[in-house]
Amino acid sequence: MNLTIDVSKNEDVHEVKLSGEIDVYTAPKLKDTLLPLTQERGSTVHVYLDKIHYMDSTGLGVFISALKSTKEYDSKILLINLQERVFRLFDITGLKEVFQIESSIRGGL
């Protein structure tokens, strides 16, 4: 499956709506889209993950890179509506403690 990325801007908030899978094949596309948004000083990036049904460690790496970028550029990233399977990755790796994750956890397919 592919990854679809829809980016829009509402005031100072970039909204990134994702659907599909984040894996070794699609992660570079996500990284190329996400990192420049976090490199805008003072910006906020909302990433909607409710339509992501699979993510591997490569995807986690993209989000870790984005988080590091927010520290460097004084921006923020917020992960919204994670599917249960995706949330579990953040949970078992301890990353749910370092990322701001919002909204309810949704069940898988």
Automatic annotation (TrEMBL):
Any one GO molecular function term: anti-sigma factor antagonist activity
UniProt entry tagged with the keyword Phosphoprotein: yes
UniProt cross-references to Gene3D superfamilies, sorted A to Z: STAS domain (3.30.750.24)
Metal-binding in keyword set: no
Domain STAS: 3-109
NCBIfam families: ant_ant_sig
Record's protein name: Anti-sigma factor antagonist
